[in-house]
Amino acid sequence: MYFRLFIWILVSGLGLTGCSQHNPLYEEGFYVFGTLVNVSIWGVPTEQARQAVDTIAHDFQSMHHRWHAWEPGPLVDLNKAIAAGQVWTVEDNSLIFLIKQSQLFSQQSEGLFNPAVGQLIRLWGFHRNEFPDDTPLPQSTTLATLIEQAPSMADIQIKGNQVSSRNRAVQLDFGAIAKGYAIDLGIKKLQQQGIHNAIINAGGNLKVMGKKGTEPWRIGIRDPSGQGVLAAVLVSGEESVVTSGNYERFREHKGVHYSHIIDPRNGMPVRGITSVTVIDPSGTRADAAATALTVAGLSDWHRIAQQMGIKYVMVVDESATVYMNPAMAKRIQFQTQQPPKVVLTDPL
Ligand code: AMP
Ligand code: MG
């Protein structure tokens, strides 16, 4: 079993660790959210950059604890209260924000992005840090019961900081949006510390601000069929590049590959799409959208992207064909020896 998350930053000729006072790029990584988080900061003294990364690492550890879906903490407490049909006081404003944002994105995506399906995610064995090979697959009757109970973000009611659900089958799992929100908060925190040119890359969820000196940042998007880089994209100002891929986190059973992204309509792991990349100013929205569009698949991603207000999308299917809206195609530079087959869609 594998738990691999990669996005590649193409920063030519620079190492992965902190650099000297003379080098304007400072890079440092730390492990959180079950992935490596890399921070790249341009043009400030090394000590200032190091302190800023320390702050981000500390903040991210705290978010990881507060938003964790199965390790003891505030979200697990809330989920227990929901299962017991209780009204729960949520002290953590970031959790309230995540619920409200998720309600919006869930509604815009016609329920394809649905963080209320925590029970489905647990049933498929994804509420664990390591994946034993031999976990039994969920029984179809158990899945059918859950589908019938139809847990939805619309079931959640918020009054001030009092949270309740009219459906006890709701169990919140913010795995599809948390890292996107974290990079938004991380970039804001860097700005507060006087840093205006940086990248935060949390395993496939990346946000940039400013530039790398006089140049835009050059970001690599992983080839979902291997370890290489499929495409590069130039990004500057405040923009997020978020990729959802079914190669990232999956399990195998009797030779069958099961994605960690679940279709809430039938309770099954999604098939057919290997990766979706979304570019958007908001990391939170880009993260939710990349997951939603993976579930939407080839037939529906364009419509769902429009409903979510997304302007740049690249979808790769199992046969390695790349689907893009024209504005995205203008930004994408393929890095593979042979350019892939590309299908251009209508504008978004
Ligand atoms: P991402 O890598 O952003 O696509 O998020 C995938 C994670 O989101 C999974 O590991 C689950 O925790 C959760 N998840 C899976 N399917 C869905 C879904 N349809 N809607 C919302 N969250 C999901
Ligand atoms: Mg996501």
TrEMBL record:
Enzyme Commission identifier(s): 2.7.1.180
Keywords: Cell inner membrane, Cell membrane, FAD, Flavoprotein, Lipoprotein, Magnesium, Membrane, Metal-binding, Transferase
GO CC annotation terms, alphabetical: plasma membrane
Listed InterPro entries: ApbE, ApbE-like_sf
Parts forming coiled coils: none
Topology of this chain in the membrane: Lipid-anchor
Binding site for Mg(2+): A176, D287, T291
Annotated GO MF terms: metal ion binding; transferase activity
Catalytic reaction(s) noted: L-threonyl-[protein] + FAD = FMN-L-threonyl-[protein] + AMP + H(+)
Cellular compartments annotated: Cell inner membrane
The family this protein is said to belong to: Belongs to the ApbE family.
General function of this protein: Flavin transferase that catalyzes the transfer of the FMN moiety of FAD and its covalent binding to the hydroxyl group of a threonine residue in a target flavoprotein.
Protein name: FAD:protein FMN transferase
Origin species: Thioploca ingrica
